[in-house]
Amino acid sequence: MKPKTIIEPFKIKSVEPIRFTTREEREKFLKDAGYNPFLIHADDVLIDLLTDSGTSAMSAKQWAGIMDGDESYAGSKSFYHFESVVRSITGMKYIIPTHQGRAAEKILFTIVGGPGKYIPNNTHFDTTRANVEFSGAEAVDLLNEVGKHPEIRADFKGNMDIEKLEAFIKEKGVENIPLCMITVTNNSGGGQPVSMQNIRETKEVCKKYNIPLFLDACRFAENAYFIKLREKGYEDKTPLEIAQEMFSYADGATMSAKKDALVNIGGFLALNDEQLAMNSRNMLIVTEGFPTYGGLAGRDLEAVAQGLLEIMDEHYLQYRIKSVEYLGEKLLAAGVPIIEPPGGHAIYIDAKRFLPNIPPEQYPGQSVVCELYLEGGVRAVEIGSVMFGKYDKNGKFIPSMMELVRLAIPRRVYTQSHIDYLIEVIVEVYKKRNNLKGYKITYEAPMLRHFTARFEPI
Ligand SMILES: *Cc1c(COP(=O)(O)O)cnc(C)c1O
Fold first, then answer.
1. Which of 46, 80, 92, 200 is most deeply packed, by most CB within 10 A?
2. Sign, Cα dihedral of 241, 281, 134, 360
3. CATH class, 23-52+313-457 region
4. CATH of range 60-310; options 3.40.640.10, 3.10.620.30, 3.30.70.1120, 1.20.120.1810
């Protein structure tokens, strides 16, 4: 038989209780947190979809690796294990461990960035943009047109706009573009995948102008599985083979192991260029640690190595992609507007269509996020004008391109009944949408304001 039900491809050995609260309690918690879910105590959250980063459940084998970690300061055997696994997937020569993805970004852009420089990307993730801009360089998103329309269904909405990329290189000058980046999958644009053809074509343009291509590889395995499902010629390839081909077009990669390496902390910078690798290792020693541990414990390196093997298991990837799709399709069936089709690691509610009466300057996404918490103890995150909104020179508000609410699904953590409960909560909030109010910001930090901002309902 060919089963229709896709089951969790694991059984549960160790459990962690979740805490139920009353609506009255949640009203107080939310107010105390300045209406910013980042500031709510995790213990007061029932279903936590704030992020899929560092929230994975590790396997028994990963925990065994934790015990087996070699904590030698230099030359730890855990480093060589980690290095060989990362190398077998990426094919890169120099593998530099970092404590998480942004540490790799910080090192890379400190070296290649700086004033007058431009970094093109399909869509920069917030920390990537922050690290590019912190160096003085400009981060430019060149997403394919179809990726900007939440309601359009297409297979590869994370694709780079190749024509725009070439025009951009000609306009800004090759000497001002130290590298080009592709984010797989496109986290900020709905977890949408990038096709192999698009990676190949981006590489061709980069090669023509002698610009190195880097992958922001946080969700490389989910991207590989979408290629297998949707791109002709890849049906019979394994996720590993597809990932290897993706990396074969890149000259380097940054990775947050907190995503597709199924660990709670870790990351790496992978490079082919020897000089860049030497400069990066020198920076690493100043900011992270010695090159064979780079801000991690030996045990963390073991857990990453094992996680990278597990993530490419086809049963895991099928369950992963299908369970996110299950959530998305159920919401669509209830009329809730989301980015279509469902992405790899998350469902993105389109708050512009959910709350058409709340303008961007009153943060409709934040309003949905607050109501999901009040209604059902669900924690989600706004990815819209709170995260990406700006002010021009005269202090005029410039909204984000999209107003989204991200429901990121931690890996191997929640079961289908958790997801069914979540659907109930979201549909209930959708029914009450005409009663929802906008928000105003009462405090904001100069960079990455969404983490610490405080709000008040209007
Ligand atoms: C999470 C993430 C990062 C940053 O990684 P951290 O481990 O959180 O520092 C960079 N890019 C993308 C696409 C991400 O999803």
1. 92
2. positive
3. alpha beta
4. 3.40.640.10
